[in-house]
Amino acid sequence: MANSPIIQGFRDGLAAGDLLLQKCNSCQQLNMYPRYACPHCQSDDLGWQKAAGTGTLMSVTVLRAGGPEGFEQEIPYALGIVKLDEGVQLLGRMAPDEDGEWASYACDQRVTFQPARDKTYANFGHAE
Amino acid sequence: MAEQWPSYVDAGQPNDPVFVGVGEIPSGRYPDRNFIGDLTKVAILALKDAGMAPKDVDTILLIPNLHGFADQADLVFSRMVEELGLNRHAKASLMIHSGGSTSDNAVRSAAGLITAGHAKTVLVLHCERWGSANLAEMVTALSKNGIPQEWEQVTGLQFNAVGGLITQRYMHDTGSTAEEMASVCVTLRKWARLNPNAMFKDKDLTVEQILASKMISDPLHALECPPLADGAVAFVMTSAENARKRGLTESVRIAGSGGCVSHYSIGQETNLSVLGWPLAAERAYAQSGWGPEDADLAQVYDSYAAVTTIAMEGLGLCPKGEGARWFAAGNGDPGGKLPVNTNGGLLSAGHTGVGGGTALLVEGVRQLLHRAEQPRQVEGCRRAIIGGTGGTYMDAQVLLLERVEG
To answer: Per the record, a Pfam family (chain B) (predicted)?
Structure first.
C-alpha cells in the first residue's frame, strides 16, 4: 500500500517513540484509527495529538499457531485491544512477561504504551 | 426503542418472496471435486427440490468463494448462466458479498428483487474449496480479508486470534469456564452426527478431547477452531403467487429481518462480548411482531463458540451471560429445549468460507420445509431464527423465517 499522510504520520510517531492519535482541527474530536475525513464532521483538516499512552486492556490473546505470511517466525505473540484513556481504542501487541509468556495479562487491566520504534503497530505493557 | 422500519410484505400477498427449494452436497475435504462442477450440481439439486427446471430461473445470485481470487473475479455468476443453459433467457446474474453474513444479505436482495418485480425466480448459489486449498495460503488469506491492512494486518492478526479476542472477553464478562465453552462445540457435533452432509458426521467429540487439544490462540484450543472445508449449497426463491401457480403446497416466507453493522476492524468494536446482536434482534422482532419465544429452532453463525453464545444472548434465545452454560446444560442439543444449528454448524459441518452461513440458512429452510433427514428433522417446526455475521463479526444479521402451507 502506498503510504498516505495518515499512515505515514502515525508511523512517524511510533518511530519517534510516540503513540499519535488523529485529531480533527475542525471539531477537535479524536479519531482512531486515523481517517481520511473526520467521521464526526467530515472535515479533512486533520492533525495529531500525542496519546498519554495509558488505557484499559479490553481483550488479549496469544497466537501460538498459524502465523500469517511474514509472521511465521514471530509465533507466539500476544495481541490486545486497548481502550485508551482518551476514549479511542486500537489493536496492538502486548509485551511478554519475563518468562516470555503472557500469563499476567487479563481483561480490564491497566496497560500503557511501550515504545518499540522499529514497529508499525503500537506495543503495550503493564502500567506501573 | 428501535427506529421505525417499513412494514414487510404481508403473508399471502402475491409478491411475498418465498423459499421453495434447497440443494447441498457434503462438506469436507474433496480434492476430486471441482468449483464449477459443484456449483452446477447444487444448482440442479435446489431446482429439483423446488420442482423446477433451470428455465424457470431468471436471476442468478452468486455468493462468493474465498479460496482464490481467480474464481472470485471470473464473473462466475454469468458462467453459471451458460452451465445451466440460460443464455439469453437469464435477465441478470450478479454477486453479493458481506462475508459470513452474505446469505442473509443475498436473501434480502433476492426478496427485494422479487417483491419489486425485478425478478420472478432467483437461484442463489455458493461453492467453497477451502478444504482442498493450500492451508498456508488460506491462513494468509484469513489474515487479510476483513482486517485493515495499515492498522491491524501489521500486528500479525488472523482469524483464530480474532476468535481468541472475542472468546477471552466473553469468558471474562460471563464467568464461563473452558468446559462450558467447549460444550458448545460438543452440541454442534451431536447435530453433525445426524447430518449426512456434515464434515464430521462420523466422529464423536468430547469436552475432554477439546481441552486436551493444542492451544491455538488463548483461550481457543485447536478443536474449538473451525475446520476449513469444501462445500456447496444453493436455494431457490420465487413469489408466493408463482409458488401457488406451480402447485407448490409448502414454502418458507420471511416474517422480517434486522441487522446492525457495528464495526469493520475488530480493534474498533466497543463491546466485544455483545457485538451488534441486541440492535439487530430488536429491529427484526419489531418488523415481524415476533419474539424469541416464537422460534422452533435457531441457525446461528458459529465459527467460534463465543460467536454463537453472544448471538444467542443478543437474540434473547437464552439468558444474558448464560449462553455457554445454556449449551452445557444440553438446551441446544438434539431433543433439547431449542435445537441450534441442526446441520452441525461451521464448527462441525465444516467452515465453507462465506458459505458457512449459507449452509446454516439452507438447513433452516430445509427444516421448515420438513425435508431434513430423520432423526434430525425438528418435528412440526414452523418458525426459525437465522443469525449471520461477517468479517471480524462486523455485523449481526437476523432473518425470521416461517413455514407457509397451501
So the answer is: Thiolase_C_1
B168 to chain A: nearest residue by CA? A59
Sheet holding A30-31, edge to edge: A30-31, A20-24, A46-50
B272 within 8 A of B170, measured Cβ to Cβ? yes
Please, are residues B296 and B385 in contact by the beta-carbon 8 Å criterion? no
| Whole-number Å distance between alpha carbons of B87 and B75 | 14
Omega before A33 cis (within 30°)?
A: yes
Q: Render pLDDT for B287-342 as a digit per residue (tens, 0 to 9).
A: 999 999 999 999 999 999 999 999 999 999 999 999 999 999 999 999 999 999 99
Query: Per the CB < 8 Å rule, is A90 touching B144?
Result: no
- Pairwise CB contact (< 8 Å): B148 & A32: no
Residues of chain A whose beta carbon is less than 8 angstroms from a beta carbon of chain B are: 1, 7, 32-33, 58-69, 71, 74, 77, 79, 81, 83, 89-93, 102, 106-108, 119-121
Q: What is the pTM of this model?
A: 0.97
Q: How far is B211 from chain A (nearest CA, A)?
A: 16
Residue of A nearest to B217 (CA): A63
| Beta-sheet strands, E only, within B218-368 | 220-221, 230-239, 250-261, 297-300
The 10s digit of each residue's pLDDT in A50-94 is 999 999 999 999 999 999 999 999 999 999 999 999 999 999 999
Integer Cα distance of B127 and B122 in angstroms = 17
Ramachandran region, residue B215 (left: φ > 0; alpha: ψ -120 to 50; beta: rest): beta
Chain A CA closest to residue B147: A91
User: Hey, is A46 helix, strand or coil?
Assistant: strand
User: Is A91 close to B157, i.e. CB distance below 8 A?
Assistant: yes
Nearest to B143 among A62, A68, A83 (CB): A68
Which DSSP category does B173 fall into? H
Strands (E), B195-292: 215-217, 220-221, 230-239, 250-261
pLDDT value of position B213: 98
For cell 500479525, name the residue: B156
Angle made by CA atoms B147, B152, B155, in degrees to the nearest 5? 130
Q: Give B132's DSSP letter.
A: G
Name the grid cell of A49: 495529538
| CA distance readout (Å), B302 to B65, B180, B343 | 18, 15, 11
B155 vs A92: CB contact, 8 Å cut-off?
A: yes
d(CA B33, CA B67): 14
Which of A80-89, B99-108, B140-149 has the least mean pLDDT?
B140-149
Q: Do residues B329 and B340 make contact, with C-beta atoms less than 8 angstroms apart?
A: no
